[in-house]
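Example 3.2
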Amino acid sequence: MKIDFDQHSGLLSIAAYGPGWIRVRDTRIEAPCVVTPADIHTDLLPPDFDALDAAHFDALANLRPEIILIGSGLRQRFVDHALGARLATVGIALECMDTGAACRLFNILVSEDRVVIAALFML
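Structure, written as tokens:
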């Protein structure tokens, strides 16, 4: 799916996604990734959603977001409650949704100048 989004701000946005890929501006990504308004990280997530653990969430928290969006793939899945509670203790909100919804919400929040990151698993 192509997403139309104003890229004049200089901040990164997710331009499109489909089965097995996400495009951030002109960069096609074919593995789980973390997108921030300024960077793309391909080394912070495990290859599979089920392998997410506390160490991954610590790495995400070290990026200092207000909000972490988890795009869990084709369908919405939730992380272990303890992992989300751990983030809440340091003031970081966590939202889990399917990857398409996470891509769209990421763009909206970036356009509102929110400090958001999207941890995205492929569809």
